[in-house]
Structures are given as C-alpha cells and as structure tokens.
Amino acid sequence: MDKLYIIITALLLSNIISAQNEPTYKTEEIIITSNKTSNPFLEKTRSVSIINSNEIKNQPVSSLSELLEFTVGVDIKQRGPQNVQSDLSIRGSSFEQTLVLINGIKISDSQTGHHNMNLPVSLYDIEKIEILKGQGSSIHGANALAGVINIITKSNAERSLTFNSSAGSYGYYDTYLGFSQPIGLLQNNLSVSKSHSNGYRYNTRFNNLTFSYTPRLVFGKNSINLFTGYQKKEFGANGFYSDKYPNQWEETKTLLSTVKGDFVFNNLFLSPKFSWRKHDDMYLLDHDRPSFYKNTHKNNSYNAEIETIYHSAYGFTSLSFEFGIDKIESSNLGNHERNKTGISLEHKTNLFSLLDVSVGGYFYKYDTWGWKLCPNADMGLQINQDFRLYASIGNSFRIPTFTELYYLSPAQVGNSSLKPEEALSYEAGIKYITENINSSIAFFARDGKNLIDWSKQNPLDKWTANNIANLNTKGIEVNFSLLPQTLYSFSPVTKILLGYTYIETDNSKINYISRYVLDHLKHQVIASINHNLLFDIQQSWDFKYELRYNSSDYFICDTKISRQIKFVELSLIINNLFDRAYTDFTNLPMPGRWIIGSLKLNFNDF
Fold first, then answer.
1. How far apart are CA 75 and CA 61, in angstroms?
2. What was the pLDDT predicted at 41?
3. pLDDT 10s digits, 167-188
4. For residue 276, how far is the Cα from the chain centroid?
5. What is the 3-state secondary structure (H, E, C) of 225-256?
6. Could you tell me the pLDDT band of residue 36, with boundaries at 50, 70 and 90?
7. Other C-beta atoms within 10 Å of 555: how many?
8. What pLDDT does residue 42 have?
C-alpha cells in the first residue's frame, strides 16, 4: 500500500493544480461579486474550488452530499444515503468546523453540526457551489474554522418548466418539479421534490420532502433576492447514535427565509442580509416504544448583516456588521438563548500589477465569551500569464453547539463551561492555469487550540464534552484537470480530473479515547473522467479511494450514462458499481450497488 501512495503522489505532483476563474458583475465604476466567497480576488490568494452547473449535471450523483464527496479535500461521512444525514468536514476538521451558506447567507445549525446539511434546496436548483478551503472566520465569522461551503441557487430570467422522475434500487424514487416565470422586473423560481426509499437494510427507510421559492427583483445594476425553503425528513436511524438500539427513528423539519440586497452607488457596493432559520428535531431511541426515550428540539436562529465594499485608487475596502440570536427549546437541552455581534474589516489592493495583498480581520462578541479578534493576511504573486504563487495566514474560531454545552443522556454528558475552539491556519501554494489545464498544489497547516471533543478515559465511561485537545494538522492537496478537446478536437474524452489529499495530525498529546477529533481522512484520491460514446451518449466516471485514520480503506466507483434528445434527457446512474462493502462510521455499513434510472423533461422559454 505504501508503494501505491508513492506512485499516486508522484503521478499527481507531476501536474500542478488550480482553481477555476469565477465570473463577476462589472460596471464602469466598480467590480463587485455576489458575496465574499465568490470574490475573484480571494481566488487569487486562497484555495477556492468551484463546482459549476455543468459538473453538477454530469456527475453520477443524486444528492448534494454525494456531489461534495467527490471534491478533493472535502470529507462527507454519511450515516445513510441520499443525504439522509451527513457530516461535513474540510481538510481533517471535525464535522462542526465548516460553515455552510446559501447564497452567501449563513445557515449553520446551533444545536449540532449533524444538522448542517439539512438544507431546503434540491440538487436540481443549485447553480454552483463555492468551497473555500482553510480558515474563513476572518471573512465570515464563527464556525468557519476549517472552511466554507457556499451553495448558490439558480435564478432563471426566462419562463421554464422542469420535471424529473427517478426510480431505482431499494424501492427508491424521486420526483422533482421546477417552474420559472418572470413577471415584469420580478423573476420567480419555484420547485418541489419528494424522495423515498424502503431502505437498504433493516430500519433505514426514509421520506424526504423539499420545497423552495426564490423570487428576485432586478432593476438596473441593483437587485433584491429572496429565498424561502422548507424541508422535512423522516428516516430510520438504525445504529446512528448507538448500535444497541436498531429501532432508532428521527424526524427533522427545516424552514429557511432570507432577504439579500445588492446595490451599487458609483464606487460603493451595499448588501444588507437578513435570515431566519427554524429547525425542529424529534428523536426516538426505539420507534416501537416512543415513550421509552424521546428528545424534541426546536431551534430558531435570526441573523442580520450589512456589508459594504468601497472601490478607490488604493484598492477595495470591505466593512460589514453582523448581529444574530440563537434560541433553543429542548426536552433534553433545556431552553437557552445567546446573542452574537461581529464586525469585519478587510482591505485588498494590487501592488506593481503583479502582487495582490489582503489584510483584515473579524472582531466578534458572544454573551458568554466577550470580544475577540480573528486577523488574517493573504498574498498572491503573478509569476507570468499562467503561474501564480499565493500564501495566507489567519485565525479562526468555532463556538460550542447547544448539544456540546447541555446534552445529557445515559451515554453522553455535555459541558456548560466549554470555551470556543480556536485555530491558527497557514497555507502556501502554486496555481497553473491555461486554456486547457487547471492545476494547483497547496501545503496547509492548522494549529488548533481548545478543540472540543467527546472523550472518555475508559471504555465503560460516559462520553463527555471537553476543551481537551490542542491538535496540529498539516497536509498537502493536489488537483489537476484537463480538457482534452481543447488540444485534440476529435478526442472522445471531454474532461479528466485528478486530486489527492494527505493529512497528518500530531496526536502525541491525546491520552484519552476520542470520538471525533481523530476521525478524519489520512489519504484521499479522487479521479473523474467524462467522455462521449456513440449516438451522442455521454458517460461520466467518478473514482474515490479513502483511508481514514484508525480505520480501514476503501475504493468506490460511480458512473452515469445519459442521452439528451431535444427537451428529453434519459440517464442511468450506478453508485458503488463494484458492490464494495464499506463504512463512513464504524458499525454503519453503507449501501452496496445502487442503480437509479431517470427521465428529465426541460422546457425553456415556451
């Protein structure tokens, strides 16, 4: 196996990898972007990956979690398929340390990071996904300790109707209906989807319902963007939290409403943002005996932010103010409320036309912990038309969830005295971009302080939440993508992608039984190939090899075959093609081969 790692590393290092360029909105007075993460300046000085609409369409996936699984440096641990419940981490972080955004608005769950992927957005409604790898607290504030995932939804300015029906293994079906209708200056996008499965093993059935409405008012250079989404999940949770109870059951409901404005006044860009997220969680330890052990949690999070960007002869200066409230009413955690205040300041400039520099920080306050500062500095140097060097350093933080603070059960005990997690992150890399090659190599390190872990000294003890770990993480990430048809127009292969991530942690000071801090990937290899077959049939392949720290390795292959005939698209997806046995969590086997056939009808401007 060591020889395999050497061969893979040598192969990938022979090509230096990079991120894609991101389009911006341009005016004569000022260049702006839809949100901070999609800032092209940030892409010059940080590690940013973008999954565009074509890649979403061509991948052999049917859920957001599966899509993110094939992104280098991103770790998705699923307790069940089809986004039933997924834990998200970046570059060896815990599942609590990645911030999730929808259209640039923060929506992470204050109860537990297990619910961060409960998003009222269908895969068919996503225009693109932006992934910032490395600390994001200096830009976005709390919980962006290891990275940020920003999901941008579609906004269709023309009338359209989309219908998709899928069916497959284990009694699976998914039905989606999307409709767009402009009315004057108002663009309207409406969708509803429902999915179901009988389960791939005992008590793993699920029912998911998702609804979203996205109106957008556009007047000149300005716009007001609204989003309202609702999602309901019902699923068997066999072994999710304890392998002693196979009849566990869980139901979650997520309601999200956001308002975001984008306004341009000569050299000033102004963006106010408001959001309300309501999340209800009902958990049964034994579905057949509901009164035996039942937890109910009702969360409400309110957030208001105003962001300004001023363009002058000295560069771009951004200033933002944020205020938020998190509330919970819980049968187990009790009733709690906390307030947060944040101020972000950043200046970006270009020196000598070759050197890009950014300096800034996020100044924040929570009720319990007082004011703290997270500074950062980024730099990018353009060597020539194709090569760019970059480096960054910055602080980041994460506040404890309500579960970590107050949870109490026969097996787990929270800790109301927890402090926020902190980390100092470093990164340096090289990017190489041409017409047909996007490539980059990044070296990263993260020095964590007061990291929160559920731990115990002896196997029979209860899991207890503590600021117990100071953990140093370092690694290397390599990406390479090639568009062969830009070199050879007759090539049947349209895209090749290779990626590798290696992560190492210094765990010499950890002298306890850890539940989460050490549960990360050590080696990750991602490969993807898109090519054409006869009769305009297209096929895509995704390959993934992962070795988790203190766990076994596995190799997974997915494929998709599709054919577009005018407004009709037929596709066949096969996940886990070779029917490999594997787990993301110990004692939770993932499905074997899963086959899904789909019929999609898409009517545009009718």
1. 16
2. 54
3. 999 999 999 999 999 999 999 9
4. 20
5. EEEEEEEEEEEECCCCCCCCCCCCEEEEEEEE
6. low
7. 12
8. 63
Q: What is each CA distance from 13 to 5, 72, 427, 441, 469, in whole angstroms?
A: 12, 14, 17, 8, 33
Q: Model confidence over 335-358: pLDDT tens digits?
A: 999 999 999 999 999 888 789 999
**DSSP readout, 494-529?**
EEEEEEEEEEEEE-TT--SEESSTT-SEEEEEEEEE
User: pTM of the entire structure?
Assistant: 0.91
275 bridge partner residues? 258, 303
Q: What are phi and psi of 55, to 5 degrees?
A: -65, -40
For residue 39, what pLDDT band results from cuts at 50, 70 and 90?
Answer: low
Helices (H) and strands (E) in the chain, counts: 6, 37
CA count, 13 A, side-chain hemisphere, 407: 22
DSSP assignments along 34-80, one per residue: SSSTT-HHHHHHSEEEEE-HHHHHHSS-SSHHHHHHTSTTEEEEEEE
Beta carbons of 206 and 179 less than 8 angstroms apart: no
Burial of 219 (0-12, 13-18, 19+ CB in 10 A): exposed
> Rounded distance, CA 39 to CA 84, Å?
32
Average pLDDT rounded to a whole number, residues 386-392: 94
Beta bridge partners of 278: 255, 300
| DSSP-assigned letters across all residues of 171-210 | GEEEEEEEEE--BTTEEEEEEEEEEEE--SSTT--EEEEE
Tokens of 147: 């990275």
What digits encode the pLDDT tens for the residues 469-478?
Answer: 788 999 999 9
Read off the pLDDT of each residue in 226-242 and give the average, rounded to a whole number: 94
The CA distance from 572 to 540, in Å, is 11
Query: Smallest Cα–Cα separation from 596: which of 30, 216, 81?
Result: 81
Give the C-alpha separation, 156 to 16, whole Å: 36
β-partners of residue 258 are 227, 275
- SS3 category, 162: strand
DSSP letter string, 284-319: ES-TT-TTTSEEEEEEEEEEEEEEEEEEETTEEEEE
The angle formed by the CA atoms of residues 144, 233 and 544, to the nearest 5 degrees, is: 55
The one-letter amino acid code at 240 reads F
- Mean model confidence pLDDT for the chain: 89
**pLDDT at residue 20 in the model:** 35
Amino acid identity at 242: S
**Residue 286 identity:** D
Residue 350 has a pLDDT of: 87
Residue with tokens 């709390």: 142
Can you tell me which residue has the tokens 């996020």?
362
